[in-house]
Design a protein that fits this description.
heterodimer, A: 392 residues, alpha/beta, Rossmann fold, 18 strands, 20% strand, globular, disordered N terminus, B: 438 residues, Pyruvate-ferredoxin Oxidoreductase, domain 3, 2 domains, 6-stranded mixed sheet, 14 helices, 15 strands, 32% helix
Chain lengths: 392, 438
């Protein structure tokens, strides 16, 4: 296996200052997500209005028809993701977008997409919870929710963009991963990243190496499900070809007939776990700003990453070497890159807009290093100053 | 006609025997579906049988067509997605009275949309698979596992519900009707949303608990005042076909901004525009952001306003600087313009946090409490009238001029790139404000 994928730091303009000659645009994260989806070949979208995710729904309603795709506003969130699952089984590249309260309603269909091995991109534009919470208030409280959002507790893939450029590139990668592993893939963003307009370089800055060993997306023969070897994922058999295809959300054999045979059921469920776990190296995307002299590591993701980078710069100016680790793949945990980032580190600061949901994962892997959190759950963003204080 | 002879499939059933209880109506309905598919000479790979949950949810396994077995009450949502993505496929939904109840919102919406799917409701008046509990179609007084003293609820009239809400084809009958295969075939050929409410016997539970029978089905339908037969048959546009054939809206066009001006700004500035809803605060900030980009600067703009957008405050927070803005919030602003009392109230904590190095631009009627330098601009002193809706832009223009964020020409250029209906007026406001900037 090769090294973990890296997204380059935001842009060359960062180093060259005010008169970069690159072309720029004033866009928000929602626009970047929509462009990423369209460039990934998304041709089906269904969603239900919810702040702060509606911008994606509205843009897809406008953009998809001209490209021969279909966008529809469902009667509720359950219907929206259900339509996406049905469309995906015809071979459509499907996406839906919502916020935390919508993920609550998506839950049963996330389980169906896991069980039926449906490629599907789900955007969660996080807002402050629980319940209605703060519709226009930033939060990162769905980190564990999206990972464990289905009964049974089976793995999914979760990507977290840390910039508008990331919103574009990670949306494209979300489609690739969904197809490669026939699984729901979350794009976990938030109100601030989705709605803040900012100058960005176009084409969107950032580099993501291509996925290795990508098999054909679709196939027309063979069993719709295959469990041996457990980590292998066959291409999707879509409806509407020359042969019939079966799909079921019940425990099933490789022909999608319901079964209670322990050998078949065990093979199915082991496959659902292994097809993600065994490929975590191909899924992991991180941005690691390593300082070989650093004994302090800042870990942040999503909207908090920018404050972490600003804080680290300020610390360096003060003479404190700091490394910064920005996981773009939150789940599965980027174990290899994280282990490398933790080498020689004595103190880890995990900054997130929740009460420490990802910190618990870092803590379990940090060995003797001391892990502390910088957290806010008041709807305000974590400031660089708060992180800087924790670094000292 | 060509000379090619097509041999129709004799059956769309596979070799598996049905798993249903003796006397259960499910097998009769599935046989009728089989005969309907034969009569339509369907291609099994172009038929998707979408099943729900309950005993009827097992049905797809006995057909040699494509199949989708999903979650309780949601079968219509998958069927809609399949039909929208592939309008050429025949999509048949098999659901019980249980799925009809829990998926009621989907039933209504599918009828309203007139999505071209055919729904067979296996209506045996109770939940068979989970032990004979009452459903939304259980008749009043009926005894079930959860209505031991008799059902207190009125039953859902499924046909009338979808009928008055736009279904193309809605029929009621029983699993004993000899014409059921023909009615299913007609429904599939209707070209729109079609539903058959098919009453039948659950011999395991409902028949035993209520001494129910084939004859009692007819009597119950009559007692409830429900009718049988084809009760709704209209011709509305089908949704999937319409979604694919209507004229597409114009996609958004990217608007790249190429730097044209040099600026001297060597540090990040946090600029806040505070006004009232309708005061075009956000568009004013957006214009300044555009101008800053013309000056080669990086920007990020966050807006804050009540969810009821036409009332209360409107705040735009604009970070501008020579480097990309990675952290967009502005805990302590460098510049605040206050254009209305609503904005002043909202910006009060920000104004209080500023020190003497900060700049506040406002109008004579407002009195911001701040340690920052306050510049009062009287729009009445401008040579031309500045409309109230352009006040935020005028104050921002003064702030930009005094801080030298970007040249005035960049503001004019940004205004000129905006909506052509307003560009000239906007440039006039900018020029008027520049005359006030001192």
């Amino acid at each position: 296996m090769g090294p973990p994928a890296l997204i380059a730091p935001p842009s060359p303009g960062h180093a060259t200052g005010s008169m970069s000659t690159g072309t720029r645009e004033l866009v928000d994260g929602a626009t970047a997500i929509v462009r990423g989806a369209l460039d990934a070949g998304c041709d089906f979208f269904a969603g239900y209005p919810i702040t702060p995710a509606s911008q994606i729904l509205m843009a897809m309603m406008r953009e998809l028809p001209a490209r021969g795709g279909v966008a529809v506003q469902g009667e509720d969130e359950i219907a929206s993701i259900g339509m996406c699952i049905g469309a995906a089984m015809t071979g459509a590249r499907a996406m839906t977008a919502t916020s935390g309260p919508g993920i609550s309603l998506y839950s049963e269909h996330l389980g169906l997409a896991v069980m039926g091995e449906v490629p599907l991109v789900v955007v969660d534009v996080q807002r402050l919870g629980p319940a209605t919470g703060g519709a226009t208030t930033a939060a990162q409280g769905d980190v564990q929710f999206v990972r464990w959002g289905t009964s049974g507790g089976y793995p999914v893939v979760v990507l977290a963009p840390a910039s508008i450029g990331d919103c574009y590139h990670l949306t494209r990668r979300a489609f690739e991963l969904a197809e490669r592993f026939r699984t729901p893939v979350f794009l976990l963003t938030d109100k601030e990243l989705n709605l803040t307009v900012a100058s960005v370089e176009v084409p969107f800055a950032g580099v993501l190496p291509p996925m290795p060993d990508v098999p054909p997306r679709l196939e027309t023969t063979g069993a719709p499900y295959r469990y041996e070897p457990a980590e292998a994922v066959p291409p999707l058999r879509a409806y509407g070809g020359d042969r019939t295809v079966r799909f079921t959300g019940s425990s099933h054999d490789e022909q999608a007939f319901i079964t209670k045979d322990p050998a078949a059921v065990g093979a199915l469920n082991r496959h659902l776990i292994e097809k993600i776990d065994a490929h975590s190296a191909a899924i992991e995307i991180v941005e690691h700003h390593a300082d070989p002299k650093a004994e302090v590591l800042v870990v942040a993701f999503g909207i908090t990453a920018g404050a972490a980078l600003d804080a680290a710069d300020a610390a360096r100016r003060d003479g404190t070497p700091v490394s910064v680790f920005l996981p773009k793949t939150l789940w599965p945990i980027p174990e290899r890159a994280l282990a490398r980032a933790l080498e020689g580190i004595r103190r880890v600061v995990v900054a997130e807009l929740n009460d420490g949901q990802y910190r618990r994962e870092i803590d379990r892997r940090a060995g003797p290093a001391k892990v502390i959190g910088v957290n806010r759950i008041d709807g305000e963003l974590i400031t660089p100053a708060q992180i800087l204080e924790a670094l000292r | 006609m060509t000379g090619v002879t097509i041999t129709p499939l004799a059956s769309f059933r596979n070799e598996r025997p049905y798993p249903f209880c003796p006397g259960c109506g499910h097998g009769s309905i599935l046989d009728a579906l089989d005969r309907a598919l034969v009569s339509r000479n369907a291609d099994p790979a172009r038929v998707v049988v979408v099943s729900d949950i309950g005993c009827s949810g097992l049905s797809d396994q006995y057909f040699a067509t494509s199949a989708f077995h999903g979650l309780h009450g949601r079968s219509i949502t998958y069927a809609t997605g399949i039909k929208l993505a592939r309008p050429d496929l025949d999509v048949v939904v098999i659901m019980g009275d249980g799925g009809t109840g829990i998926g009621g919102a989907h039933l209504l919406s599918a009828a309203r949309r007139n999505i071209g799917i055919t729904v067979l409701v296996f209506n045996n008046l109770n939940f068979g698979m989970t032990g004979g509990q009452h459903s939304t179609t259980t008749p009043p007084g009926a005894v079930t596992a959860t209505t031991p003293g008799g059902n207190l609820e009125r039953p859902l009239d499924i046909v009338a519900t979808v009928g008055v809400n736009g279904a193309q084809f809605a029929w009621r009958g029983t699993s004993f009707d000899a014409d059921l295969p023909d009615r299913i075939a007609e429904a599939m050929g209707s070209g729109g949303f079609a539903l058959l409410d098919i009453w039948e016997l659950c011999t395991a539970y409902y028949v035993r608990a209520n001494a129910f029978s084939r004859r009692a089905i007819d009597a119950t339908i009559a007692e409830l005042g429900f009718e049988t037969g084809l009760l709704y048959h209209r011709d509305y546009p089908e949704y999937a076909a319409a979604a694919h054939s209507r004229p597409a809206p114009q996609p958004a066009v990217a608007e790249p901004i190429v730097p044209e001006f040099a600026t001297a700004l060597d540090r990040r500035l946090g600029i806040v525009a505070a006004g009232a809803a309708g005061g075009r605060v956000r568009s004013a900030a957006r214009l300044v952001a555009h101008a800053a980009m013309l000056g080669g600067l990086w920007v990020a703009q966050r807006d804050d306003y009540p969810i009821t957008v036409k009332t209360g405050h409107s705040l735009s927070m604009l970070a501008v600087g020579p480097d990309p803005i990675r952290y967009a919030a502005i805990p302590i602003p460098d510049v605040v313009v206050v254009a209305a009392p609503e904005g002043l109230a909202k910006a009060r904590p920000l104004l209080a946090a500023m020190d003497a190095g900060g700049l506040v631009v406002t109008t004579p009627d407002l009195t911001p409490q701040t340690a920052a330098q306050v510049v009062v601009v009287d729009p009445g002193e401008a040579g031309v009238r500045i409309p109230k809706a352009d006040l935020a832009l005028a104050l921002l223009t003064v702030a930009v001029a005094r801080t030298g964020v970007v040249p005035a020409e960049a503001l004019r250029r940004a205004a000129g790139a905006g909506d052509p209906r307003f560009a000239a007026k906007t440039i006039e406001t900018i020029d008027a404000a520049l005359s006030l900037a001192g």
